[in-house]
């Protein structure tokens, strides 16, 4: 009993140290951008900080879902396609079919859940790696959204929908901050205060052991991927509301930013280890880094190089950490 308590305490302390390390990286990047001549003035401007908050909303929402997927030892590369599908579907239903905004949003959310269910059913009932399954559905999704939009932009003129994406509380606070807080709290509650959350960690830590203890592993995987699809649909709708348009190209590359945020935040790619707080801080790092590179005049090619390097470093850190703990 005493050994178990010590092990749990050691695990908690190790988790706190990891979170502090991730937050330290965020603080370092923030401070550097705050002191670089010619950048600091623009970076610290209130309008730019609010812009960062708006930009990281989508990545944090995706990171909430992908944290659960990676915790069970999975991955979902189709979230970017779901962003495009949900945003264009909602826009098309309102603009072309005259549906009320909330009915269109409900259908958009359902599309994400259905997409996630397809991923979850295939992954939970076959031995096909999640990487391959979601890579395939990513391409299917991109094809569907191009067929639906005829590869054209859908303009959205609904005022309520625009407020959902770019409104401000009390005329100051971006409404996206409310979405982030609510969705993060929901995800945190699922992972830390429910039996389902404990099952997520158990499946990721040791799937066979989870089966032997009576956990319905198939159901856990299916539910996780439905949630990932739902979170991706939320991100897509928020993105469409912010831009007042359904873009068939929206969401391209977003899956990489979200995966980088989750891994950078300390969630192990092999599953079973990770915290939502780390993923959120990881998303903040990616957001601040992207904003800083824009302010410094980095072109998109170099931004891809830097983000790829950050993801590789995060994966290598996870690898050596796992090797050390063996």
UniProtKB/TrEMBL annotation:
Q: Where in the cell is it found?
A: Cell membrane
Q: Which InterPro entries match?
A: ABC_transp_permease
* PANTHER family, per database record: ABC TRANSPORTER PERMEASE PROTEIN YPHD-RELATED, ABC TRANSPORTER PERMEASE PROTEIN YPHD-RELATED-RELATED
User: What is this protein's name?
Assistant: ABC transporter permease
Give the residue spans that cross the bilayer: 20-40, 52-72, 77-95, 101-123, 130-149, 169-191, 222-241, 301-320
Q: How does it sit in the membrane?
A: Multi-pass membrane protein
Extract the GO molecular function terms from the UniProt entry. Answer: transmembrane transporter activity
Q: Which UniProt keywords apply?
A: Cell inner membrane, Cell membrane, Membrane, Transmembrane, Transmembrane helix, Transport
Give me the Gene Ontology terms describing cellular component: plasma membrane
Keyword Secreted set for record: no
Q: Name one Pfam family in it.
A: BPD_transp_2
């Amino acid at each position: 009993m005493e050994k178990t308590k010590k092990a749990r305490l050691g695990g908690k302390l190790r988790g706190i140290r990891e979170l502090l390390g991730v937050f330290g990286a965020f603080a370092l990047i923030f401070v550097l951008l705050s002191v670089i001549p010619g950048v600091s003035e623009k970076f610290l401007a209130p309008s730019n900080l609010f812009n960062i908050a708006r930009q990281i909303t989508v990545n944090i929402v995706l990171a909430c879902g992908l944290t659960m997927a990676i915790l069970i030892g999975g991955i979902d590369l189709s979230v970017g396609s779901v962003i495009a599908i949900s945003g264009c579907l909602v826009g098309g239903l309102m603009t072309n079919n005259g549906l009320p905004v909330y009915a269109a949003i409900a259908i958009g959310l359902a599309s994400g859940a259905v997409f996630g269910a397809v991923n979850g059913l295939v992954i939970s009932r076959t031995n096909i790696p999640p990487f391959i399954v979601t890579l395939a559905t990513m391409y299917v999704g991109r094809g569907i959204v191009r067929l639906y939009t005829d590869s054209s932009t859908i303009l959205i003129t609904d005022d309520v929908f625009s407020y959902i994406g770019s409104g401000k509380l009390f005329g100051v606070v971006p409404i996206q901050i409310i979405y982030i807080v609510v969705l993060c709290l929901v995800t945190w509650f699922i992972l830390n205060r429910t039996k389902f959350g404990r099952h997520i960690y158990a499946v990721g830590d040791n799937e066979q052991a989870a089966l032997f203890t009576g956990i319905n592993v198939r159901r856990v995987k299916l539910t996780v991927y439905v949630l990932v699809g739902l979170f991706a649909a939320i991100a897509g709708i928020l993105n469409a509301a912010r831009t007042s348009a359904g873009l068939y190209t929206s969401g391209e590359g977003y899956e990489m930013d979200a995966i980088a945020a989750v891994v950078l935040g300390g969630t192990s790619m092999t599953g079973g280890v990770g915290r939502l707080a780390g993923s959120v801080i990881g998303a903040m790092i990616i957001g601040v880094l992207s904003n800083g590179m824009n302010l410094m005049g980095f072109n998109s090619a170099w931004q891809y190089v830097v983000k790829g390097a950050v993801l590789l470093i995060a994966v290598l850190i996870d690898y050596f950490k796992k090797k050390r703990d063996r």
